[in-house]
Amino acid sequence: MESSDGEERGKDEEAEGADLMEVSDGEERGRDEEAEGADLMESSDGEERGKDEEAEEAEGTSTESRRCLRVTAVCLGLLCVLLLTAITVLCIKLNNLTVERDQLQPNCTSLAVERDQLQTSYTKLEFSYMEAVNERDQLKEKLRSADGNGEINHSVEAQGR
What is the pLDDT of residues 12-60, one digit of tens each? Predict the structure, then answer.
């Protein structure tokens, strides 16, 4: 949109630059001015005709400007609708995620409590295992150091395995 306006202005400026011509005394006059002067001289109602042409040009520029503004307004309107739609979709997704988080929060809390209970049970079980291993080792030492016959040692070792 803006680039076409800029291009039109650039073309107008180029056309004005091309329309200027050097006169013998060093002054510059536009070709359009000469043509308008010739048109005014040829017609009997010269000034009125020149004003009518200017009005038609201004009206054409005005129509183009209005059309350009209308296209710009439509594009901005569409962008606003698109932005509003995106915001609405994001708000709905955020709301859904908030509800899901609120539903999962109690589950997470109960899982944390269960994890702590399991950790405590594991620690107790590990302690009990270490006590049992120590007690077994002590019993084996007592049996070896005691005066007994080999039958008792074999039966105790068989039970330990």
Answer: 555 445 444 444 444 444 445 554 554 444 445 555 555 666 666 666 6
Q: Which residues of 18-56 are buried (b: 16+ CB within 10 A; e: fewer)?
A: eeeeeeeeeeeeeeeeeebeeeeeeeeeeeeeeeeeeee
Kindly report whether the global pTM for this prediction surpasses the value 0.90. Answer: no
- DSSP-based three-state secondary structure for 117: helix
Residue 68: closest CA among 21, 129, 1 = 1
Q: Tell me the Cα Rg of the chain.
A: 50
**CA gap 101, 105 in Å, rounded:** 6
Please name which of 14, 16, 1, 15 lies closest in space to residue 65, comparing C-alpha atoms. 1
